[in-house]
Amino acid sequence: MGIKIRILLIVGMILVGIGSLAQAKVVKHEIKEGWNFRQARLRQWRTAVVPGTVHTDLMAHNLIEDPFIRLNERSVQWVDKEDWVYETRFDMPSEMQDCTCQRLVFKGLDTYADVSLNGEKILSADNMFREWSVDVTGKLRENENILMIYFHSPIKVDLPKWEAVPFRYEAGNDQSQNGGLFEKRVSVFARKAGYHYGWDWGPRLVTSGIWRPVILEAWNDVRVENVAFWSTEVSERAATVHYSIEISSSQPVEEARIAVYNGDCDKLLSTSVCSLKQGMNKIEANFKLRNPRLWWCNGMGEASLYKFRTELICDGKKMDTSVHTTGIRSIELIREDDADGQSFYFCLNGVRVFAKGANYIPSDNFLPKVTIDKYEKTIADAVAVHMNMLRVWGGGIYENDEFYTLCDRYGLLVWQDFMFACSLYPAEGVLLENIRQEAIDNVKRLRNHPCLAVWCGNNENQTAWFSWGWKEQYERQNQAYAETIWNQYCEQYFKVLPQVVQEYGLGVAYTPSSPFSTPDKGQSDKEGDRHFWGVWNATYPISAYRDERSRFFSEYGFQSFPELTSVERYAPLEEDHDLQSDAMMWHQRGGMNANERIRKHLLNEYHEPKGFENMLYMTQVLQADAVKIAMEAHRRDKPYCMGTLYWQINDCWPVASWSSRDYYGKWKALHYFVGRAFDDVLVSPIERDGRVEVWIVSDRRNVLRGNLLVETYTMQGECVASLTQPVKLNSDESRKFVDVAAEQLIGNRRPSEVVITARFTASREHKVYTNNCFLLKQKDMEFPKVHITAEIESIAKGFRLTLRSDGFARSVCLGTVGKECFFTDNYFDILPGQTVCIEAHTDLSKQDFEHLLTIKNLRDAY
Predict the structure, then answer these.
(1) How far apart are CA 632 and CA 625, in angstroms?
(2) CA atoms within 13 A on the CB side of 842
(3) Which of 156, 162, 487, 556 is the most core-located residue (most Cβ within 10 A)?
(4) What are phi and psi of 822, to 5 degrees?
(5) What is the rounded radius of gyration, in angstroms, for the C-alpha atoms of the chain?
(6) Is 270 helix (H, G, I), strand (E, B) or coil?
């Protein structure tokens, strides 16, 4: 009996202890239920979804049509001229009622918002990119708290600012005319996503709303506000991990204990004991990790992650716990003078990285529609084609935490722009301080992510000033205006932002602009990064991609249209299926100029397509061929060039654009080409001045050995010439192995009737890398009419296809009429006598798949 009583007493004590610990911990509650909204000048309330936007709520109630379909965007331009009100009522959770501290956290308010709680104004927000925290201790009721958010029209708020300035700030992509504002480009006055006002690939949809969660937090006396981890002295043998902890305390605490654990194995790594003063406290310490698992980017090793758990204990009570997943790595941006100018490359854990990737824009104009699944598909699609870097472009948003978490997990480095693009901003006074706080918020939020490689001040603002004529334009108008604008520019990008990165960025590099060479000029091909748009914007042929040089290409690209099944989703009428139709032109933000550029290059390189569907297909082949030339040239030019990021991997709505994946996530021809061009080993045959060169490029960290086979075939499959050569490449090397006159490889054949194919077989794993080369433009090649057969075998995910052709088939495209299907390879060439095996991932039955399967090649399209 005594034993039972003792056990009950012990259990009771444990339960009491658990209860007291539970009361001590920070409690969080998301306020997402019961929201309603209304137009401010009207009285009718309607249900709302939070997080969300006004536009998506209006669509849910059938008050506006989907702006992504046909011409519907035109009919919703009134929305941004109105004020909107959101309201909800909530009870305080019981576990919060006895807490001494309570706070409302608004993760994202878009953009000008007055917030009231129970009739009392508690916040005026004016920056979409900031997180707003409000102490509401003593302001909450147990029941029926009323939270109201009044969103002011960003247009009405910013028009007076535009009118008050005696000159005009450049904002060329602001589609003010589509919004009924004529030339009044007000976007630069708002700290709001620039692309919401339109871009040359996006619609003008100026949103308002609660776009990120609203969180009610409560705790007793002390809490961990922020924890940062960073590594120094990183090697495979050891690393020093530093941590900085910010603790807020409502009263002095004599003794606080901070313990850091390896959350994966619950091993104690570090303990610090300190006193806390009332207010904010900052504690720094470090610990050693022996034989750490380093974080590597895709293609260089495992993206190993550690889960560090930080516990705050006061008077024997666990007051707060914070868990952060991060990686052990060192990352540097190396800019050193050399014989050619100045280098520009990233060094990860002491190893040089050739950056292979793309530019990333927001995945939707209505940001809360971007789910974790959509993020993961985009990032997995990048990894699937061997990318190791994405650039988060400066006209969008600092992405959600989930985006960076996925990049950490998949091993994608992130080039992170601050949110300024293709514009000039009135960066002084209140706005400049707002920008500084925005930078602090986001640098601190993102700094624990090992994927973060560099912070960049803006996109193209500096090259626009020096190279687009902006400087001369302002100087002609008024020298004082020019000085004012340039001084604002320098204060923003050469002082405020780099100071924030230096103070809070944990050693991650900063570059003032992209492209950037030196502070007093635009871009250069000998130093810094470069945006090359000579083919798209100018009159250069696509072959120019072969010869342009840079230390790092951070933008270049070429447009194409989505495939027909995607076009039918946003332009569903038969009358829409013409490039000149109203619907297709509305979804071509480059207008007639863009279509003319596509047509000019298409007819310069290829035959005239027959019909609308073939036109869509051939623009994708053109885009893929053009960007392939660039990607391969950049890799061949290693180590002079150490990065190639094409524009762009994704779209924010269905549109003709430079993307390699359309808005619906379907891979264009370009994305398949990227997979071959970005593989760890590239075999790259090119024709230059009557000679054929064959290069091999290795991104591997060890010596590469194998055999190179170069063969020339007729279109009917006859081998005309063949040469072989053993290959040995050092790690991270590019080298030319063949350089012969073209005549040696084609004999007495016409250049138009042969294809040169290079095949490299790696010795260790017998992996084969192939690539084809043509001696003439595609329109001058004698591609034959061919018959392609497909053997179809059922597998777990769908079907395995074995394809054969009776003649050379160029850019074979597989599809399934009206049904979703993913092909593991597509837009590939088939040599006669050879087979190509791929998988089709689909839920279709074998009978339906065989019936719906389409096989097209370039010769079929003209």
Answers:
(1) 11
(2) 27
(3) 556
(4) -110, 130
(5) 29
(6) strand
Fill in the amino acid letter for 48.
Answer: A
b or e along 568-594 (b: 16 or more beta carbons within 10 Å of the residue's beta carbon)?
Answer: eebbeeeebbebebebbbbbbbbeeeb
pLDDT at residue 24, as a whole number: 58
Tokens encoding 348: 């990860």
Q: What is the DSSP letter of 809?
A: E
* Residues 320/516, Cβ–Cβ less than 8 Å: no
Residue 536 · residue 597 · CB < 8 Å = yes
Q: For residue 4, give Cα distances in angstroms to 1, 10, 11, 42, 345.
A: 5, 10, 10, 68, 69
* Closest-CA residue to 758 (of 685, 669, 843): 685
Rounded CA separation 860/862 (Å): 6
Map residue 385 onto helix, strand or coil.
Answer: coil
pLDDT of res. 316: 87
* Tens digit of each residue's pLDDT (9 = 90 or more) over 544-553: 999 999 999 9
Identified catalytic residue from 460, 555, 605, 632: 460
**Sign of the alpha-carbon dihedral angle for 47, 51, 54, 59:** negative
Q: Give the closest residue to 637 by CA, choosing from 710, 670, 686.
A: 686
Indicate the pTM of the whole model.
0.95
Q: How far apart are CA 162 and CA 556, in angstroms?
A: 33
Q: From CA 692, how far away is CA 686, in angstroms rounded?
A: 6
The DSSP 8-state label assigned to residue 188 in this structure reads G
For residue 300, the surrounding DSSP H or E stretch is none
> What phi, psi does 58 have (nearest 5°)?
-65, -40
In angstroms, how far is the first alpha carbon of the chain from the final one? 95
Read out DSSP for 688-704?
A: ETTEEEEEEEE--SS-E
711 counts as catalytic: no
pLDDT tens across 135-155, in order? 999 999 999 999 999 999 999
d(CA 201, CA 662): 12
Question: Average pLDDT per run of 10 along the chain, which is 862 residues long?
Answer: 36 34 74 98 97 98 98 98 98 94 97 98 98 97 97 98 96 95 97 98 98 97 96 96 96 95 93 95 96 98 97 92 97 97 98 98 98 98 98 98 98 98 98 98 98 98 97 96 97 98 97 97 96 92 96 98 97 97 97 95 96 97 98 98 98 98 98 98 96 97 96 96 96 97 95 98 93 97 97 96 98 94 97 95 96 96 94
Here the tokens at position 116 are 């009231």
788 torsion bin: left (phi>0), alpha (psi -120 to 50), beta (else) = beta
Q: What is the DSSP letter of 191?
A: B
Q: Report the candidate in 426, 407, 423 with the shortest Cα–Cα distance to residue 492.
A: 426
C-alpha of 213 from chain center: 22
Amino acid identity, position 296:
W
Other residues' Cβ atoms within 10 Å of the Cβ of residue 562: 27
| Whole-number Å distance between alpha carbons of 685 and 682 | 10
The residue type at 312: L
Give me the helices (H) in 232-332, please.
Answer: none
User: Angle CA(562)–CA(69)–CA(189) in degrees, nearest 5?
Assistant: 95
* Nearby residues of 192 by Cβ (< 8 Å), 6 or more positions away: 110, 111, 127, 128, 154, 206
Q: What is the pLDDT of residues 33-49, one digit of tens each?
A: 999 999 999 999 999 99
Q: How far apart, in Å, are the Cα atoms of 832 and each of 621, 687, 804?
A: 21, 22, 7
CA atoms of 407 and 414, how far apart (whole Å): 8
643, 345 contact by CB (below 8 A): yes
Question: What's the token pair of residue 600?
Answer: 């000019």
For the chain, helix, strand, coil in percent to 5 are: 25, 35, 40
Per-residue pLDDT at 14: 34
CA angle 225, 227, 228 (to 5 degrees): 145
Going by C-alpha positions, the residue among 594, 668, 669, 684 that lies closest to residue 631 is: 684
362 is written with which tokens? 């927001």
